[in-house]
Q: What sequence folds into this?
């Protein structure tokens, strides 16, 4: 059966004919059901406001995907009250039972991954392979975090003794209720990852998905519900971030926040969580301005493929996307030829179709931001690929399509500093790797980075001196993208993270959703 296949972001050469057939069949079914209304879920009950927002397909804005009920501030408060009421019993539930339930939810996601992937492609414009990877990663995140609990014995261990009749134990205990706020670009994986870590730690969750992905969020709720999660532990509220998200972070019953999104919003959340009578945890992952370095000894075919995949996958709308490219002057011309050949080889269009590698960006505002970056690049440097407004073409006029663009630019251009979240790559030459890495490190962000080199000294220098939490060398499947649970931990440094120094997909993530307690009992 198709659902027995494992699809990761690094899948390149497998025979995917069975998967594609199943995806097409599921897409036909789901397209016949479009227009579904999604209510909030509070205490296990569907809650409607009657105030509906319309979600359209970013590849074809004439197609209505769903409608969702916008939560009021009072309903947000009700969701926290339901979560607080349910959390105490959940915290008292043996941790192995929480692990078993989480693994059951992971299996449900795997069984339903084709449906989840199709919904994701329609809602946020991911191509079918990226969507399947997102669904698969969601399940693996649940399983990996559950295994973290097992590996750490439920985060309980004995400590030393100062006297023979003393018994001291160190335990991690839940905070209470976490607000979990997920972005559009990995609507299932990031939502599932943050929520599952909170739940495994004994917390309850109030979940706000991106308003661009209501259907995907509902599938996550159904997976937890059908796995047997008690009512009130996973509540879902829909609405725009400035209203609903702010009501969540400022709610007095909110004991912590897990957020993935922009740096500005993340920093605002941190300030909010630290502004009360005491600081509350704010676990945030905040975007990137990721660089790759192509050295004189690099395998240029591998480098061109890896850079193209990381720059233009999901239309550049990944916090890990490649947006700055430093190429050694001795191979610059040859590499650029190979990179352009790669960029010209893939098709743009409806991401639900097998032949299309790149779909739309998420909104019209995203297209405008992309075009503004292009206009500035024309003034400062040279566009060597792309640079057009695709909306002027008949086949793209109803969607939010942004043409992949590569520009040769001076290093003082804003294109080497600002995150555009679109398919735009700033390109420059270098003669000295140290100098190039020093320049790349001047950016506020520090999420991912990559290098292509046949020289071990180059790779070692990059690993030791490039300031980011996720580093890759000679990776054709993605120069800066493609982290997987338990394979690559995903931690943002500097402006890409919240200061905890520990990220998702890794062995230290779940522990951040709990606080330490020492227990000494005298005999």
A:
């Amino acid at each position: 059966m198709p659902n027995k296949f494992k699809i990761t972001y690094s899948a390149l050469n497998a025979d995917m004919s069975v998967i594609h057939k199943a995806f097409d069949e599921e897409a036909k079914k789901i397209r016949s059901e479009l227009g579904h209304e999604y209510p909030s879920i509070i205490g296990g009950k569907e809650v409607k406001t009657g105030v509906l927002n319309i979600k359209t397909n970013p590849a074809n804005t004439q197609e209505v995907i769903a409608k969702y009920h916008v939560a009021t501030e009072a309903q947000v408060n009700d969701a926290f009250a339901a979560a607080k009421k349910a959390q105490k019993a959940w915290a008292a539930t043996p941790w192995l039972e929480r692990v078993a339930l989480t693994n059951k939810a992971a299996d449900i996601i795997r069984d339903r991954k084709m449906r989840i992937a199709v919904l994701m492609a329609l809602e946020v414009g991911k191509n079918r392979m990226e969507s399947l990877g997102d669904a698969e990663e969601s399940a693996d995140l649940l399983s990996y975090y559950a295994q973290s609990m097992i590996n750490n014995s439920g985060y309980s261990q004995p400590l030393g003794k100062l006297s023979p009749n003393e018994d001291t134990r160190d335990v991690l205990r839940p905070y209470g209720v976490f607000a979990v706020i997920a972005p559009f670009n990995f609507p299932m994986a990031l939502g599932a990852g943050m929520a599952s870590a909170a739940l495994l730690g004994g917390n309850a969750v109030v979940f706000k998905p991106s308003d661009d992905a209501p259907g995907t969020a509902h599938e996550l709720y159904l997976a937890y519900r059908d796995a047997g999660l008690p009512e009130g532990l996973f509540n879902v509220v829909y609405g725009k971030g400035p209203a609903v998200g702010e009501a969540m972070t400022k709610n007095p019953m909110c004991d912590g926040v897990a957020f993935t999104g922009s740096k500005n919003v993340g920093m605002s959340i941190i300030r909010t969580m630290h502004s009360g009578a005491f600081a509350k945890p704010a676990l945030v992952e905040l975007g990137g301005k990721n660089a790759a370095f192509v050295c004189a000894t690099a395998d240029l075919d591998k480098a061109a493929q890896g850079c193209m995949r990381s720059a233009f996958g999901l239309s550049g709308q990944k916090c890990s996307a490649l947006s700055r490219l430093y190429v050694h002057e001795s191979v610059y011309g040859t590499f650029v030829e190979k990179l352009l050949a790669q960029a010209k080889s893939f098709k743009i269009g409806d991401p639900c179709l097998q032949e299309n590698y790149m779909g739309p960006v998420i909104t019209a505002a995203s297209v405008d931001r992309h075009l503004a970056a292009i206009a500035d690049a024309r003034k400062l440097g040279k566009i060597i690929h792309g640079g057009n407004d695709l909306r002027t073409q008949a086949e793209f006029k109803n969607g939010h399509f942004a043409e992949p663009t590569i520009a040769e630019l001076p290093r003082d251009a804003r294109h080497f500093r600002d995150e555009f979240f679109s398919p735009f790559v700033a390109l420059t030459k270098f003669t000295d790797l140290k100098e190039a890495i020093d320049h790349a490190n001047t950016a506020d962000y520090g999420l991912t980075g990559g290098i292509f080199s046949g020289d071990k000294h180059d790779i070692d220098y990059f690993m030791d001196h490039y300031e980011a939490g996720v580093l890759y060398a000679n990776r054709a499947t993605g120069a800066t993208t493609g982290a997987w649970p338990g394979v690559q931990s995903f931690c943002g440094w500097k402006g890409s993270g919240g200061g905890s120094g520990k990220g998702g997909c890794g062995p230290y993530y779940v522990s951040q959703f709990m606080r330490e307690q020492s227990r000494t009992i005298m005999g």
